[in-house]
Structures
1.
Amino acid sequence: MQTASRQQAGARLSMVASSANHIDVSQFFSNPKPEATKDYIMQQTMIRVKDPQRSLAFYCDVLGFNLVMFREFPQWSFNVYFVAQCDSSLIPSDPDEQWNFCMRTPGCIELTWNYGSENETGAVYNTGNSDATGSQDGQKVRGGFGHLGITVPDVYDACERFKELGVEFTKTPNGGGMKGLAFIKDPDGYLIEVLPQGKMITKPLDCAGVAVEGGVGYKDNSK
């Protein structure tokens, strides 16, 4: 078993080293799923938020999530709020059943509020994208976290609505080098990518009036 594991590891290292910018990842499409993981779920991503009221309003009223469960831990001075894209009629009213429902729901976002952060001045948490928040030397951090992501039937229509609601954009659909997708910010500045639920299409003008032929080139948000 150990020999086989070493061979697999060696094969993967060779695969990575085979090209400077191309990796053969085809095996990961067809590799059999380990039996022990057959019931695993990608259930949550956690982000810390400054003001839970603002964050819940954004994720629920702007992006259409629902609160599926929350827990309060005054003894440790924090609360957690789980939001998800789901049928609200399926969310139980009993807190214990809400826990069970939440733990079986893929793609939740856990909004964690540490008491008192809402009273701090300015940004509180580093977003991972060329952000100096929280750094001891005041320099921007090349963070590992990039963004959350949602898909919508029509990116251009969704962005028109986001603009009307006062959402901040870092990239409108025709901005940048990659057309037909957008990036918006949540109240804490975390990036959210907006992608289509099908083919990447473009329209002549986007919500900011940028022509499809316009916009600057690709930007690495980590730098």
2.
Amino acid sequence: QMLAKLREKYGTLLYEADDQRYYSFPSLECLCAVKEQDLRDMGFGYRAPFIVRSAQYIVRHGGMQWLEDLREEKDMDALREKLLTLHGVGRKVADCVAVFSLDKAHVVPVDTHVWEIACRDMDPTLARVKSLTPVVHQRVNDIFIERYGTFAGWAHSLLFAAELPRFASRLPRTLQEEMKSFREECKQKRAETKREKTAASPSPSPKVKKNGQVTKMTTTQTSSSPKRQASRSLMAAHKTAPRVVRERRNDLSLMDRQVGVQRTSRKRKQSST
């Protein structure tokens, strides 16, 4: 829907039939001039600045020729690095562009859902990993290629779509039950991991009042020596004292200084006489 809005507003009308209008994708030069707020109003949200800045970057580095050179790039690592220079593009988005737009049909964009598919249907040992590092991305990609060959990227699309509720109902009942069971298992593992992290994390830091607001003391504050803690307690007590009391103390200090100046002046006069 977002792309349809983008084409309709900034593209060129190509064809119209049966009350349907088809527009071209806007040019790079057009996207460079688009206002970020206009994209936000169209529903692009956080993606708005990515679109404008990426278009501007591509124009500065050769425009359409830069894009065409990407399609001719044979080294996937080099291709990915070039895509990662675009504002807001990460590993998964770069791989999506490669497989869907640059004829790299063997590339598999990996996210949590694709990783879970690989764990369930291909290599259960992948469940041991803690995060989706570049090494894990490559391992999942290699597994898909081993099973589906040079069209692993398109196979990934079918498997990914099968996980969506709108398509899952068309699958055999036994497969639906297996997928549901696996999702529940993954959900339980995530909850268990979260509990373990919570248990391993340090206890909440004690809170102190600062300028009328409740703030947390840092770990260094709570774990410092008793002498330092006492000093900080005095400082905290001074900061939390009523404003009137502090002003009164300041007034007294000013009076003391004034009295001292007067005494010094009298002594100087007496010594001169």
3.
Amino acid sequence: MSCEVCQEVQSKYKCPRCGLKSCSLHCVKRHKVSKKCSGIRDKTAYVPIKQFKESHLLSDYRFLEDVDRKAYGAKRDPNLHVPARTNGWLPKQLHQLRKTARQRGVNLMLLPATFSRHKANTSGFKQISKGRSVFHWRVEWQFPQCDVTYVNDGVPETSTLRIALEEYIDPTKANPVYKQRLKHYCAEGMDAVRLFMKIEDCDREKIRYNELKLDQTLAGNLARKCVLEFPTVIVALKDSVEDYLDKPEQTSTKKTETDASDDSSTLEGSKPQ
């Protein structure tokens, strides 16, 4: 039987999908384009019992094995088993976490369960007594001048940022490991740094930052701000703070040639006759 594509040479191949017969790779590709055929056999296609062969039985068996393997894999995938959703889209414990943050004036934004930042978030609150609790934040510290990032789990909201930073850049209290990596900061001292946090709910295309107060508590610094899962604080030396401050748009005071010509014509017209 001749090739059903070029109709010149005897056919050698048969498409598993549509059954079209072809003679070469070129004709196979032509038929896939013209017929929009994938070339992959349809494992669920109906086969009459009179045409059913052992190869069909083996194919069905492999197909069922593949389905069973994927179903078993889905059961073991933790990302597909999210706790029951209540209070809108949030699980009960996350709803309570966001509610507690809101009581402190913090707009806590939570990402979907599959996001790595959400998985890394260890922030929570501890009940001290009836009606009293203390929020413990996971805080990410970025030191851009040394290209280093460290994380503190469980920083109490009552702690000042100065105290939380002591183990990193305080010349006398810093951890020796951190002190070696952050020697530029330790050499300058605690009072030579300024702290910034990215504004998460800003609609502008330009990235903007809020400046935090070193001697204020974490709760006071986060009040009336938006936090994405947990706060990320940028610790900048004073010689690089310009990168994080809002630069006002400078309006040019020079007049254009058109304005200058208009002014000159106005002056000429106002001369006394």
